[in-house]
Amino acid sequence: MVPPAGTTVRADRLRAVNVPQPVNVVCDENGMPVAIGEEREKGRKGVREIMEVWVVHDEWWRPPGLNRRYVEVLMEGGSHLVLFEDLNTRTWFVQQP
What we know:
Elements: E1 21-22, E2 25-27, E3 33-36, E4 45-58, E5 66-75, E6 80-86, E7 91-95
Antiparallel strand pairs: 1-7, 2-3, 3-4, 4-5, 5-6, 6-7
């Protein structure tokens, strides 16, 4: 059994983890991601493979609702990322899977 730490839990000390970050996504003619980053950036990374795609429509009772298209990708360096496009604003975000 772990002894109590002697401190109280405070809401102002909580923080979100794995918060989506805005990202620039380059798409092909079908709207699927092919790279992340600006063309002129040295750090631009290519998408090697699209692993899975799914769409979420939620909170429809609160316009505009939550409308997202998620795309799990395998990057050229071997890392996995989950990208999503906010279908209301056409803005892309990245999250760790």
